[in-house]
Amino acid sequence: MPEASSAADEPAYGRGLPLDPDPAQAEALLTRASTLVAALFDGVGDRPVAGTPTDPAFVAGLLADRPGEAQPIEAALATLMEAIAQGHESRTGGHLAYIPGSGLLTAAIGELLASAGNRYTGLHAPSPGAVALEVGVLRWLCELFGMPEGAQAVLLSGGSMANLTALVAARERHAPGRPQLATVYVGEQAHASVRKAARTIGILPEHVRVCPSGDGLRLDVETVRVMVKQDRADGLVPTAIVAAAGTTNFGAVDCLGRLADLAADLGVWLHVDGAYGGFFRLTERGRARLAGIERADSITLDPHKSLFLPFGTGAVVVRDRRALVDAFGEEADYLRDLPDADQLPDLAELTPELTREWRGAKLWLPLKLHGLAPFVEALDADLDLAAWAHDELAAMPGVTTCGPPDLSIVGFRVPGDDAAQDAALAHLNAEGRVRLSSTHLDGRVVLRLAVLSHRTRRHHVQYVLDRLRDWLERPTTGTT
Ligand SMILES: *Cc1c(COP(=O)(O)O)cnc(C)c1O
Description:
Layout: H1 23-41, H2 56-64, H3 73-85, H4 105-117, H5 128-144, E1 152-156, H6 159-174, E2 182-187, H7 192-200, E3 208-211, H8 221-233, E4 237-244, H9 256-266, E5 269-274, H10 284-289, E6 298-301, H11 303-306, E7 314-318, H12 321-328, H13 332-335, H14 360-370, H15 373-394, E8 400-401, E9 409-413, H16 418-429, E10 437-441, E11 444-450, H17 458-472
Parallel strand pairs: 2-3, 2-4, 4-5, 5-6
Antiparallel strand pairs: 1-7, 6-7, 8-9, 9-11, 10-11
Helix pairs in contact: 4-14, 5-14, 6-7, 6-12, 8-9, 15-17
The protein binds pyridoxal-5'-phosphate.
Pyridoxal-5'-phosphate binds at residues 99, 158-160, 163, 191, 193, 244, 248, 273, 275-276, 302, 314.
């Protein structure tokens, strides 16, 4: 935590910066900020998950805070840094809860430069360079997922907006003007954002069909078929099957190839939610496990999950860009024709947004500065760690798992009832070195270990395993 400096070392730029600092002031400020940023990343992988405890007085001060007089720069920066410090350190390798988001310095720099340049990227004409840089990344995404010519990716704020954007495209394709008749098919483990998206775009909550499945983890293809046919017979308009390329709860991958066959057979849209798992496609094992994803009509991706970017970057890849133009283009007549290969798109015609953050920069810069290999290696390492953790857990007496992980999330239960699960979880998290979370499966509490940070190392997982063994061997085992 930087301390507010005394008046003596208050930097030369002093208090009350003009809206446009002169170059010397700008540099002094950036130098100070760069020191803070470097400190934010120093040793971050091994920090405890438990950050600074929340200070109620600090929170109350922020809530009462109003803009007015200019503050001394050091004091303002110190407040900002303290706000960052309070709560969990989500960037550390010990973050094994929910879906970890790790963050990259190089993406933060890309974001700073993009924001400093403040280019308008809703349309291509004012900023052809910025739009081209982003479109290069978008084409890579389309190619990575085996999409044909005519596919289109767009960057959004996250997976929720990506799911929403895809569902609008599906609705406009299959149920234009009739959202109240549209039905969508999801697995029991589908992410809540799918329901939220459906509701937001006028699909009735009761028309989001939750398909029960044998193992509770993966969509049952034949159940979906029966439900679609029944709904059609009842005069409804089956619109989209939403499959998971890695569920949030357990990382389970649906049978994407068979669902693609089914969707083609029934004439409905196949959306694959790969917000958590999509980028495992970069690895050999992930490519095999996500086989069939290349046949989807649309795919949600979250670079702020499995590409380690800071929060605020999601993506959707759509097989046929005309579906996006039909859904979001406001000059549809003019835009219906596919553009020339080298014509840049107007991104505002492809999503709900008009003015938008230039997200391409923070995705492009890390890919350039690191190359692809470290991303692939990190994802491979996550797969290894999760597989190892699973085998170790499965070998512990009384511990049951949800099966070998499809990707990098392991679900497990210790002996005993739900209260025992909560107690074990509390024990694992008690020292603040790691953080795991829990969920429900078939109405029972299940613990989960989610490896998705490029900073998670073997020793983090080893710590979890050792601590769980301690807990299992404690004198009171079995009495909870
Ligand atoms: C995280 C997640 C989402 C939502 O993405 P946000 O980026 O949080 O909006 C959707 N689907 C799945 C499978 C997820 O894991």
